[in-house]
Amino acid sequence: MEEALVRATIPQDLVKALGVESQTRSKADAFTQAFLKNSIQQHSRHNLKNMLTHKAVILGYTRPKKEKKRSSKKAKGLNARQKRAMKIFDIKPEHQKYELFLPLHDLWRQYIIDLCNGLKPSCNPQFVQQKLLKADFHGAIITVVRSKCPSYVGTTGILVQEFKHVFKIISKEDKLKVIPKRNSVFSVEINGFVSHIYGSKFEQRASERSAKKFKVRGTIDL
Amino acid sequence: MAGQLKDKEAYQRLNYLYQAAHCVLSQNPENVELARFYCFTQKTIARRLVLRQDPSVKRTLCKKCCSLLIPGVTATTRQRRKNRKTRFTVVKCLLCGQSKTLLNNPDYCLWVDRPEAQLQQQKQPDRGPSVKNQPKDSDPDKSASSTPSTSTAGT
Ligand SMILES: [Zn+2]
């Protein structure tokens, strides 16, 4: 009875009033799982199982240590050690699924088409290239065309993370591949326009490219 | 004119990154790392190019760990009362524990929504191209720090 209530779809009149829609079953399930996992508080300090496997437990009362209060209530960023401990940007292996990133790719296509004012076939390739230089590539399907290391050639996948020296792409086989930018040429295809990225020229963080000025024509070799 | 166009590209990029973070979380609510990476990139781009982001965007990002705050998925939203009258909405990031406290004030009007801000933006082009848009940029900042609604509180 209760379960049926939980799984009930939103009534039609409410859909209009609230502007929300019922999700598909798999999506709703994923949301519920994540919601429950986040809602149940985890006490790492009071992890009993861990504590009992330890050598000895002293039964006694210790006054809980007062945590040092910060003078200001402002949020402070995390330092590098904390970031490393949190694995702040590492994608967990169970989330490395190719089909989970397909909507991201669709979103990316829309973004690029919007960026290039519609991207008609009559567009000047130079113009498109200029726009792509400053564009974001997260979500693009990229292929390694040439590389000094032959085993990288032909690798295709959705680019999920761009770092200073590497691209992290997810291949169709649900594998996360880390490809160094240096000494490789990548190709990006969108609506018939194929653009080549010279990785050696791209060795910056994803955020730095927005501000950088590129030379019109530099020497290009691998 | 060229400067304006360049900004437009950057804003489109910020917009895309923000949407991408939402897209990733809607596909897989547990993949917080990637969403956080996109929001972090978005934040760094905005910082490098000195672009102001809308308060509605800023309020959905964690100041500490840069993750996207979606109530129920990556954040909890609770109502808290201080005195009899003042009530706050407390949004707590589930990933790092940082919380932000927003005053419930239906009459509160953001600086960008106020008519003065619009006037100032319209005045901008008259000053000529040599004047940088510093006055425009510094004002929203001042207003944001003086209003209680955007202040953050520790846990
Ligand atoms: Zn956080």
Walk me through this protein's architecture.
The complex is a heterodimer of chains A (222) and B (155). Chain A is of the alpha+beta class and 222 residues long. Chain A has 2 domains: 2-40, no CATH class; 92-209, Ribonuclease P/MRP, subunit p29 (SH3 type barrels), CATH 2.30.30.210. Chain A has helices spanning 2-7, 12-18, 25-39, 48-53, 80-86, 102-115, 125-133, and strands at 141-147, 156-162, 166-170, 176-180, 184-190, 193-198. In chain A, strands 4-3-2-1-5-6 form a 6-stranded antiparallel sheet. In chain A, strand 5 (184-190) and strand 6 form a beta hairpin. The longest helix of chain A has 15 residues, at 25-39. Chain A starts with a helix and ends in a 24-residue tail after the last strand. By secondary structure, chain B is α+β, with helices and mostly antiparallel strands. Chain B has 5 helices and 4 strands. Chain B has helices spanning 2-27, 32-48, 55-58, 115-123, 134-146; strands at residues 75-81, 87-93, 99-103, 152-153. Chain B has a 4-stranded antiparallel sheet, with no helix packed on it. In chain B, helix 1 (2-27) runs antiparallel to helix 2. Chain B is flat and about 45 Å long. At the A-B interface, helix 3 and helix 6 of A face helix 1, helix 2 and strand 4 of B. The site of zinc ion (ZN) has 8 residues of chain B, from loops.
List its traits.
heterodimer, A: alpha+beta, SH3 type barrels, 2 domains, six-stranded antiparallel beta sheet, 6 strands, B: four-stranded antiparallel beta sheet, 45% helix, binds zinc ion
What can be said about this structure in brief?
Chain A: This is Ribonuclease P protein subunit p29. Chain A: Keywords: Nucleus, Phosphoprotein, tRNA processing. The complex is a heterodimer of chains A (222) and B (155). Helix content of chain A is 29%, strand content 17%.
